[in-house]
Amino acid sequence: MTYTLLAMIAVPIALLVDLVLVRTRVVLTLQWWVAYVITVLGQFAVNGWLTGRRIVTYDDSAILGSKHEQFVGDWRICYAPVEDLGFGFALVLLTIVSWRWWTARDARRSARD
User: Where in the cell is it found (predicted)?
Assistant: First the structure.
């Protein structure tokens, strides 16, 4: 399975978990989008540094674009493949959704006790 396909699967799954499965509806809040913008700026910096210095490399058969690393273009943003955006979005969203869900669950349990 390619990194592209995994990223394309991860985003809808994260959205389904948030909006349908646990119903935290994190992505519907302004707070989420402000936090995500801050997070993605950090992701660009870290990914750019790691990929631009070739500390992290990607198999060009697993990503969009080619192995030719450039700052922007050829399906790259800050040297990293565009798939990193989708995958990072899903990872951060699932982390926040899990945190909110467990916090609410613990609050309900405490209220019963």
Answer: Membrane
